[in-house]
Amino acid sequence: MLNPNVVVCRLRKLQLLVHYCPILKPKTNSNSVPSFCFGSASKSTNLYSLNKKISHLVRTGRLSEARGVFDNMKHRNTVSWNSMISGYVKRGEMGNARKLFDEMPERDTVSWNLMISGYISCRGKGYIEEGRNLFDKMPERDCVSWNTMISGYAKNGRMDEALRIFNSMRERNVVSWNAMVTGFLRNGDVARAIEYFERMPERDAASLSAFVSGLIQNDELDKAARVLLEFGYKDEGREDLVHAYNTLIAGYGQRGRVGEARHLFDQIPFYGDRGKKGSGRFKRNVVSWNSMIMCYVKAEDIASAREIFDQMTERDIISWNTMISGYVHSSNLEEASNLFGKMPNPDTLSWNTMVSGFAEIGSLEHANDFFRRMPQKNLVSWNSMIAGYEKNENYKGAIKLFTQMLLAGEKPDRHTLSSVLSVSTGLVDLHLGMQIHQLVAKTVIPDVPINNSLITMYSRCGAINEARTIFDEMKLWKDVISWNAMIGGYASHGFFEEALELFKLMRRLNVRPTYITFISVLNACANAGLVEEGRKQFKSMSSEYGIEPRVEHFATLVDIVGRHGQLEEAMDLINSMPCEPDAAVWGALLGACRVHHNVELARVAAEALMRLEPESSAPYVLLYNMYADAGQWDNAAEVRMMMENNNIRKQPGYSWVDSSHN
DNA sequence: GTAGGGTTAG
Known about the structure:
RNA binding, DNA-binding, about 0% strand, 37 helices, Serine Threonine Protein Phosphatase 5, Tetratricopeptide repeat
């Protein structure tokens, strides 16, 4: 067993570790530079190839290696500095970028633009202002600088500022217009996006695909389709017009409209033929095929997905990964493994798909095997494996891996933290949960799901006031899960009035309850002995909200009315059930019969239980005791005989029986 | 090496 105190102690240390050194110091690698001498003839070629090397390393995310090369260069030009700066900018390490920018001997337009872009695209205090500051100070601004400002403001939701920049530009190019259209769409202003799209003096393929993609993000799928039909031919034909079509195919797929996606996919060759001589020529590319696979995968039509996949003459890594994920999502890990074995160069994403696939179906050994063997892990790899342990209730494994992850220098994100919060909930370990809560506060901006996990954790651990604090702090940013977690927390900890009070508030605020809400509400009624209220809530479920009661709701209502002595009503309820009553339902009835000494009905309930759970001794024992209490010794003896005949041994504890009789 | 657009994993 894992000692919780040890875990807490270890976590506290690791927390400090994460807090004080979130990112490993860049390793400088002097061996990565060839040690031949730099003659004047080879100087420029060396400079060129080293610059290329830096940009390659930066592109592949190997920033510390790039820095190593950079530091060891004898001669650098502006491109060397700019490449290095771009690496830091891409990672959002503006401090490091700024240091280089300040140190570099000569800055060109690209250097300034890089810094401006880094600052203004960063969500963070003061960054946008600093970007603006540099923009204002910049000696010779080019079109890229202006466009950077537009898209930066747009990314941060400040379309008013973006517009001001746009309006003060003397010369705009197509990118300026595209950035405005994209900005409006990103901020949900479809009307103005349309206006600007129509006002554009010229449009290129990017204008069209950006517009289409933005419309789709705003759930304007049909508008997007119309735009494509209207402008798709007319516009100067560029091969990359297919981008826009690919977007729409994927958009259809995302919303389950596979038929339309397929239609568009099939039409592309015809669109391409329209302007056969000269313009308007484009054809399906690998992304079109991949998107089509994805559509079928989303629609859980794996056979069709495979058909597309098999028809492809050229596949890229995304084709393979999408197809594999299709098999993973349909729990066909055999075929997924088969494809994984066949694919040319599986990348981290491929490995992650396999890890999460096996974890999802509960094969932790296989998941772990893939996880251990993968050549390169990323945050998703760790998260998938940790989530796998958590979902399969291997909490010890989850915590162990989480610890290893922190030790490996990987910084947890909301996915990690949400998993380990669930671990705390599963272990009902308040101390662990509080530690994770602190980590949450330091690491992420809490969103609704994370707050919900916190509410669940605190309420499950009995810290109902802490749960309520989080709940109240969420203000308007609650969803139905938040309400369910809080109401459920109250109901399961004996705060029935609070549970029902909160439920009333929820209804007043027009939050639609779910079947889970009603389980808690009925539970509260049951435990508070509120018979009439219970009946009323049960009825309102279907009459007011159209939620058909499930077996859990019936079980609770049977418990409510049964315990109140309304055994006939309880039996009628069972007979009226649209689904098969389960052990919980019959158990509730049996418990009620015991309290109210109704041996006849008890026998019915007990026999049903014997059928449903042939191994369990509980119904026999209960029935025996009831007959004995009633002095019906013949019947009691009969039950004992049945027990012996069926080879049932008495075992302690029956969870479904009324707790007061346990 | 800098500005706008398409497909895959938790």
